[in-house]
Here is the input.
Amino acid sequence: MKITVMTADEQIVSLDVDPHETVENVKALLEVEVPLQQQQLLFNGREIRNSEKLSAVGVKDDDLVMMVSNAASSGSTNDLGLNPDGSAVNPEAFQRQIRSDSNLLAQLFQNDPELAQAIVGDNVNRLQDLLRERHHQKSEYRRQQEEEMALHYADPFDVEAQKKIEAAIRQKGIDENWAAALEHNPEAFARVVMLYVDMEVNGVPLKAFVDSGAQSTIISKSCAERCGLLRLLDQRYKGIAHGVGQTEILGRIHVAPIKIGSVFYPCSFMVLDSPNMEFLFGLDMLRKHQCIIDLKENVLRVGGGEVSVPFLQEKDIPPHYLDEQRYSKQATSSENPVTSGTASDSKKVSTGGQSSGSAAHGGSTQGSDFEAKVSKLVELGFGREAVIQALKLFNGNEEQAASFLFGG
Here is the structure.
């Protein structure tokens, strides 16, 4: 194995030694640097005796051993040592020692720039945290290596050993898959910026969050008030959105103008008491206005392509908007489950003290209200079975069922 020895005069010596070599023999190899009788070796802040073997005191491959002179005071030698948790006994002295060696510092900047930056910086706590972290990582790596060696020599007929070998093989496959992804598909590990476009709602400019996973277009109470639309709030559509947390539905604004590019379009909104989310352009309006989310050109096309507006870059999105995806999972439509992001985040809205999703979930299509909706949509020229299916799909929401049927 290879070990690195830092001498008292700040020289770096690399040695290729056997793990079972005694400390006395290691000192003999270092005698060309410092007279044998003046050498003192420290590992993790503790002096190691001549009779001890490297493996017995815990020295592993690529470890750092400090070499000091017996002429130096024990206090100063201890200052350059490391605690059992990997932190420096005296971090200021440790910093000075590394800073004074330009070659070592250059190597450190190349191999571990984060640690090197902490050494040249003024934040001692950050340095100590990094040293502990590196120590923990090295300990974990050693533990894994030891487990692999133990499995290599394990009884092949031992059931528990076979389970561990199977788990190790599976983990190795995962690690190889991760390494391949990191090499060939590194962008998969980057944060995905959500889709925003510039819009105007009732003449007020804002940045709209485009979310095809939310079934309805949503505006917050504060945003509706800023846009002068709160006076049009229909409180008959009150309810509670249950899902990731709980959000109150204050009502619905049935129609208001939105401007996308240079064209005005009619839009309806659900109004939520959600200060964390300003405006969400949902699937209902994306479908109604035949929108196309073009990720190749990075634009939103509206009206089948008559208008194209670019999605905003991250630098153009206010920082507090970047967490909008989490809040969009609390968004919902007026009377039906909504999924925003994942299927497990579906919401059910209760209106009038009853579960509005009961018709769909219970399979019941009885009741005068439901039959009236069916008759009304059949009069528009749709088949009865298609109408019933659409109403069941949207939990009795007549307006969204009609939009679905027209869109189909």
Observations:
- The radius of gyration is 34 Å.
- The CA atoms of residues 109 and 116 lie 5 Å apart.
- Residues 71-77, 329-366 have pLDDT under 50 and may be disordered.
